[in-house]
Each structure stands twice: as C-alpha cells, then as structure tokens.
Design brief:
Blueprint (H helix, E strand, L loop, with lengths): L7 H10 L10 H7 L24 E5 L6 H16 L3 E4 L11 H9 L4 E4 L8 H9 L3 E5 L10 E4 L3 H16 L3 E7 L5 H13 L8 E8 L4 H14 L3 E6 L2 H12 L8 E4 L3 H9 L5 E4 L2 H16 L10 E3 L5 E3 L5 E3 L4 E4 L9
Parallel strand pairs: 1-2, 1-3, 3-4, 4-5, 5-13, 6-7, 6-8, 8-9
Antiparallel strand pairs: 10-14, 11-12
GO molecular function, one term: carbohydrate binding
Protein name: Rhamnose ABC transporter substrate-binding protein
Subcellular location: Cell envelope
C-alpha cells in the first residue's frame, strides 16, 4: 500500500472534500461469465518488443465511472503522474453520473481526438464494448482498470486485487467484529456493477461455511454510488432490521455514507460496519468507534500501474499476451496473467492501530 508520502495532495482534496467515491472494480471472472465472447482478451497481432522504449508524447485518457469522485481523482491522479514520468500526457474525462451507457459519448470523442490509449473503469461491462471496439479499430489501446469491460472491449485489465480475496475477507472482517453471529446486510453500489456483484457472490459463498452458521444475510441494498441514496439506504436497513448486527459496504461511497449515519445514531458501536474505503475518508469514524476496521488497495498505485500498462501497449513493449512482462516505474516489474489480467496486489486492513500510517 502507498503510505503517507504518496498521493498526499490528491487525497486531501478528494478524500475529505467530497466523500462521494466509488470503489467500482470489476473482476474478470464475472465479466467472462457475462460475455458471450472468448474469455481471453485479444492480443495484438504485432510482435511485442520488450526492449522498445516508451514512445514520447503518448496521449492517455482516463475515463472513470464518474468524474469529481474522490476515489477516481486519486486513481487517475496516479495515472497522470505516471504519464508525466514517461514523457506522456494524461487527462481525465467522463460523466458526472455512473449510468450504464454514460461513457459511450466520451469514448467516441476520444477516438476523434486520436488518443494513443484509453484507460477505463466501466460502468457496465457490455454497454461500452461497441465504442471501445471502434477505438481499437482506430489503433487506440484500451486498458480497463478497477471495473472491467467484457474481454473483447479491451487489451488488458488492471485488477486492484483478487475478487475472491476481497469478497471473503469482507465477511471475515465483519464476522470477527460481531462474534460470528447475527443478521447482516450488504450496501452495494449499482445493481449492474460487475465488481460489486462478483465480490458479493464470494461473500455469499463464504457465508455458507460452518463457522458462519449463526450469521444471516438479510438484504443486499443499493446506494447507486450516490452519497445521499447510500445514506438513505442505510437508514432504511436499520428501520427494517433494528436488530441488524453489521453491514458490509464494498464501495467507498457506501461505507462513508453508512458511517456518517451510524456515527450520529443510537446504533453507533452496536451495528458494526466494514467495507472498502480510504484512510483519509474514514479516519474520524475509526477513531470515534463507528468503524473497527476496513480495507482497500492504493487507488493511486492502481491508476499508476494502468498508465504504465497503457504506455507499454502503445509503445509495442507488450501485446497483451499472457506471460509478457513490463516495468511500471516505482512499482517494479509486472507480468500479464491469464485473460489479459494484471494484478496490483493484496489489500490492506486499516484499524485504529495503523490508520495514521497512511495518507490517501
């Protein structure tokens, strides 16, 4: 994880000012199941040259689920910083709402602008594919990050962490906090968010194990990655289930909104809350006892890695084939895995004992 010496300016602006972030990551497994196409991302027919230099002046566009979103501000800030390192130009464009087709018009514009690469966190794995295929036909490299597209829509997917690790550890964290017994709920993002749905499936599978026999998942609610709706959904969960023991919110928007509601209610300290969030966003809730622990990867590192992956593709260092390697600046060397996936690494658990060691 990135500690307090990295991404400080972005985190202070983004994490504290808006609290509207969306941890929308998608797993390849889920997208592969939803896509009727081949599970493997198509690699370029051109032979890769691992010794090729990164081309100067590469234009790389970051297309998040929504702009003015602290999580993506940090992630894309990392990507733009990487672009500066290798002599390229990075920019962020995108919709203000995270609807399924809201990114299509931006992809079309980026094609007209002749970008060298598009780095996208997809609101919907399939809605963006036709436009992305047009981008690829125009010679633009496509890297998905955080939230994957269907495989035929991109060259690579930079995954923040193993979907299974995230889904199962969320349950494990909450189970420890509630003594492995009681009713629990999940506060997700949008119903079609592929990352959320995949993590939730692993959560449900984890809950089938004998050690969770006294825990019951009573509802999956959706806050649509909107702060106020997530706040209202939390309120609704507790009205419907006043004996709720805990909530898992695998979205930084949801966990922040839920924490805000719990911190000013009679449920504070009684209903446990965990999920995915940033340290700067949730620090005060950890310190006041609203949250015992939560987890996340480094958003800045995720964008940084995606930027270098896009540059390596656009420069011909890699084609997207399994086993190819490339260097990602300060993060070191990465290897492309099966189906065009690059894994950033394992998430970190944040508690009152370590949260002040991190600043993003």
């Amino acid at each position: 994880m990135t500690t307090r010496n990295v991404w400080r300016p972005l985190a202070l602006v983004a994490g504290l000012a808006l609290l509207a972030t969306a941890c929308g990551g998608t797993t390849r497994d889920d997208v592969a199941q939803q896509s009727s196409a081949s599970a493997a991302a198509p690699a370029s027919s051109a032979a890769a040259d691992p010794n090729a230099p990164i081309k100067p002046g590469l234009k790389i566009a970051f297309l998040p689920k929504q702009v003015n979103n602290p999580y993506f501000t940090i992630a894309n800030g990392g990507g733009i910083e990487a672009a500066k390192e290798f002599g390229g130009e990075g920019k962020e464009v995108g919709p203000s709402e995270a609807s399924a087709s809201s990114q299509v018009s931006y992809i079309n514009t980026l094609i007209q602008q002749k970008q060298d690469a598009i780095v996208i966190s997809a609101n919907d794995p399939n809605a963006v594919v036709p436009a992305l295929r047009q981008a690829k036909d125009a010679g633009i490299k496509v890297v998905s990050y955080d939230s994957d597209t269907a495989p035929e829509g991109r060259d690579l997917f930079v995954n923040q962490a193993s979907a299974e690790d995230l889904g199962r550890t969320e349950v494990q964290l909450l189970a420890e906090q509630i003594g492995h017994k009681g009713k629990i709920a999940i506060l997700s993002a949008t119903p079609n968010a592929t990352n959320q749905n995949t993590w939730i499936e692993f959560m449900k599978d984890e809950l089938t194990k004998p050690e969770y026999k006294d825990m019951e998942l009573v509802k999956v609610a959706y806050g649509n990655d909107e702060d106020q709706k997530s706040f209202t959904e939390t309120q609704g969960l507790l009205r419907a289930y006043p004996d709720l023991a805990g909530i898992i919110s695998p979205t930084t928007v949801g966990i922040a909104a839920a924490a805000r509601y719990l911190s000013d209610s009679s449920f504070k300290g009684k209903v446990k809350l965990t999920g995915l969030g940033t340290p700067n966003q949730l620090r005060k809730f950890v310190k006041d006892g609203t949250i015992d622990g939560f987890e996340l990867w480094s958003p800045g590192d995720l964008g940084y890695l995606a930027s270098y992956a896009a540059a390596a593709l656009a420069s011909g260092q890699i084609s997207g084939a399994e086993g190819e390697k490339f260097k990602a600046g300060k993060l070191g060397e990465y290897t492309i895995g099966a189906k065009g996936e690059i894994l950033l690494g394992k998430p970190t658990v944040f508690t009152k004992d370590n949260i002040d060691d991190f600043d993003f």
